[in-house]
Amino acid sequence: MSGAVLDNFNAQMEAAGKLREERAGSRKEEVAVEENDRPLSLRERVFQARRSQDLAEQAKSKAVGKIAEPVQMATGAFLKKMWMLAPETFGLTGLYANIHVFMKWIFGDKLFCKLGREWAPKQTQAMGEEAVEQFGAKVGLAEAALLLILDLIVLFLILGIIALIVMMVDFMQGSIIDKVTMVVKGITTIGWEGLSALYYLFHP
């Protein structure tokens, strides 16, 4: 008889425990519904807006990075090719570096690499971005100096051509006396040694 009473008591205790668990679960659900239904505070709305903006910027940055990397490799390879063709074109293709630098200034170095980085070997690229940056900084100085020399040469050539054109126009528009005077001045300025050198230079 005592065993039956003990089993009945245990069953009642289990039923009471289950009832308490059910009530606690329903209470949690009610609280969750109340929290979801209640309007967000200003602080919570600002936090959600910032979080959404950060996620959007991260997604945009990843998308731009995937597109920009092959474009940067292509523009860097083209710049390298122009420098390699410079000896055959008397430095004219090397002047493309001016366009490259200008485009980098407009669009940034994500699409157009800094000078010198296009020469980084595969071993250096495998070492990481920092190694490529250091390599590019060293080579970039020499590349920028060479570009400056080419620009100065082209500038002097353009100025010389303009001066020659002006002299020819003045010579054609001048009178006979002015033409003779200009020829005499030219001969005296160059000198007989200069004239002899020109004669032997163009003599067949």
Largest sheet: none
Q: Determine the N-to-C terminus distance.
A: 140 Å
What is the helix fraction of residues, given as a range? over 70%
Evaluate the radius of gyration: 41 Å
Contiguous uncertain segments of 5+ residues: none
Condensed summary:
The chain has 204 residues and is mainly α.
Give an overview of the whole structure:
With 204 residues, this protein is an all-alpha fold. Among the domains are: 69-168, no CATH class; 174-204. It is 83% helix and 0% strand. It has 6 helices and no strands. The model has no long low-confidence stretch (mean pLDDT 75).
Helix and strand topology:
Layout: H1 2-37, H2 42-85, H3 96-107, H4 122-126, H5 129-173, H6 176-202
Labels describing this entry:
single chain; 204 residues; 83% helix; 0% strand
